[in-house]
Amino acid sequence: MSEKAVLVTGGAGYIGSHTVIELLNTDQKVVVIDNLTNSSYEAIRRIETITEKKVIFYKVDILDKKALLEVFQRHEIWAVIHFAGLKAVGESSKIPLDYYYNNISGTISLLQAMKESNVNNIVFSSSATVYGDPTVIPIPETLPTGSTNPYGRTKQFIEHIIRDLCTAEGNWNAALLRYFNPAGAHPSGILGENPLGVPNNLMPFLAQVAIGKRECLSVFGNDYDTPDGTCIRDYINVVDLAKGHLAALNKMKDDPGCVEYNLGTGHGNTVLEMIHAFSKAVGHELPYKIVERRPGDVRNLTANPTKANKELHWKAEVGLDETCASLWNWQTKNLNGLEDCPGEAPAET
Ligand code: NAD
Ligand code: WQD
Question: Where is the NAD(P)-binding domain (predicted)?
Answer without folding.
Answer: 7-325
